[in-house]
Known about the structure:
Elements: H1 2-23, H2 29-45, H3 59-69, H4 73-85, H5 100-135, E1 138-141, E2 144-148, E3 156-158, E4 161-164, H6 171-186, H7 189-202, H8 207-229, H9 236-245, E5 257-258, H10 264-272, H11 287-298, E6 327-335, E7 338-344, E8 351-356, E9 369-375, E10 378-387, E11 390-399, H12 401-409, H13 417-426, H14 430-438, H15 446-454, H16 459-468, H17 474-483, H18 487-495, H19 503-511, H20 516-525, H21 537-554, H22 558-565, H23 574-583, H24 587-595, H25 603-611, H26 616-624, H27 632-641, H28 645-653, H29 661-672
Parallel strand pairs: 2-4
Antiparallel strand pairs: 1-2, 3-4, 3-5, 6-7, 6-11, 7-8, 9-10, 10-11
Helix pairs in contact: 1-2, 1-8, 1-11, 2-8, 5-7, 6-8, 7-8, 10-21, 13-15, 17-19, 21-23, 23-25, 27-29
Amino acid sequence: MIPYILYTALILSACFLFYKLLLQKETFFHLNRYVLLFCMVLAFTLPLIPVPQQLSFRKNAAEKSIEAAKIPTGTAAAQTSKEKSIQPAPVEETKQVINVDVILQGIIYLYWFGVVIFGLNFLMQAVILLFRSYSGSVIQDGKFRIVEITGDKAPCSFGNNIFINPEKYEWETYNQILLHEKIHIEQKHTIDLLLAEVVLVFQWFNPFAWQWRKALETNLEFLTDDQMLQHDTVERESYQFSLLKVAAPQFPLSLTTNYNQSLLKKRIIMMNSKKSNVHTTWKYFFLVPLMVLFACLFNQPAAQSQSLNSKGESKQNVIVEDEMKTDGNWFAVIKGDSIEISFKSDEHSNSSHTFQLRELSSIPRDKQGDFTLTREAGTMNFNGKFEGDKGMGTYKFTANKDYSTAMNKEGLDIKKDNDLMVFFLINIKVSYVQMLKKNGFNNLDKDQVIPLAALDVNEAYITSIKKAIPDIDLENLVPFKSLGIDKAFIEEIRSSGYKNVSPSNIIALKSQGIDGKYINDFRSSGKKSDNAENNNRNNNDDNDDDDIIAFKALNVDKAFIDSFKALGYNNLSNGDLIGFKSLNVTPEYVKSFQNAGYKNISAENLMALKSQNISPDLVKEYKGLGFDNLDLEEIVGAKATGTTPVYIKSMRAKGHDFKSLEKYIALKSLANN
Length: 673
């Protein structure tokens, strides 16, 4: 049991690190959801799958067991008899200070004790949620059950139930919350959380399992935000404002998907981030060899079958690859000095490539004929005809075996004609691979070389980048080139204060359109971050990255910051500025309160006022009721609890005549409970 549980924990931890390093910043939220769910199931099933003995790294143990099984019965009996006849002299055993068996037994008991505790906690949460679902006031909205709650709890959903306090929100925010939670329900996100809770019951000791649940929740929120913004009735800015309005100090049970469970800054950044390019999906395929490696390292090898076919040969599976064939049909269009040819084979989609006319032999005009295209990797033979600038026919690719041999010497194993055809179409020369190796990129494989050559990552570009980042990885050159990152951009970022900027930082900044000027404006206009007392650049680079990206996404510029400085707000933190922009706290809004006599309102109070849509006119209404020395925090509390001027008037009509606004707030709170 212990080896199985530890192996499961190891797989889950490796999958989490894989997700954290490669996938969490991608905007393929649907795909990320299925990867997270698949890995949870895989962690518990992979250790149970035997692997072929020839692939297992544990084959030595298997071979020993097979050899033992082959010993004849008579020999084994003789050996046993011999061992019995030679009895060793009795020796007094040294008393063991540490009993390993007792310790292992104690660990097993401790593990199952944790499973029982967390299992009971899981069942208790489920019972509480079911009780709340069917014991309170409910509004049936189709298949959705809207359960009305009281107090300052965040909206959430479980199954087909939406828990919300309708008195707490304005109509637009209320509708956005319902739409958000309905997306959770329609996509059955509760199943994801239930599976994650089951994993935690059996992996309660594994810190990566807890982080896995957090990553799953965060991705579900990203996915729901993305679905929300696709609705025509939801405006991006309005929706982002509502996220802060709904923020509550108390959170629901962990089995629920709740409206504001993710860090707001991360959600805003993700909503405004550039969509991931489909070409980055190659990252997901690396999960397969990772899991195969784990299986070969740790799984029990399967016993080899003793039966062979009539020829004594084992059967082999035929692998059909979904890739471009070496023969098929072509369609072409001549455009000036170039020709665009689309290749189609069987039912596969077209693959289009552009060639220079000078590379082709004489093409047949208005008659059937042959023409060829020759490159280092091989020769493409075409048959067909052109009518004007358009033509069609059939093609067949013949690989150059000498090219394959030359590439093999350089460390690239390219034997299949399909792979050679890809190298042919991109026109990857042997000299290109030699250039990469000369620049320090050894141990190359075809999947690395293909995108580099396709993006024309040449020696001049590599040399230029290596002058700025000598230890640049081969994997970073592809996003560098595709984003147009050059030496000048890297130096510009460094001159703005990033002395030890990493390639991933550069990629993130460039993808958001952030340059050195924007960074300088950012640092000269605002405080470093919420922990601005720390002046150590190395400790704050990561915080600055997030803040800069958030500033760019929300369009927090120097003019916006200076407009608040003109009102006396010279020490606003980055978090304050992000909150102001998200909640639409404008200089005009601040001035309206200053004109009403409130001169030194803190940034926190301004955000609280705006989140409750409190205006100076509302303050005047409260003052008109006889509350002269009002504190703004009292007004925020009154609005948050629904203690409106209308409510106060109704209570006074019933004989509740208080001189303090706090007493009306307390009265309203008691009524809500």
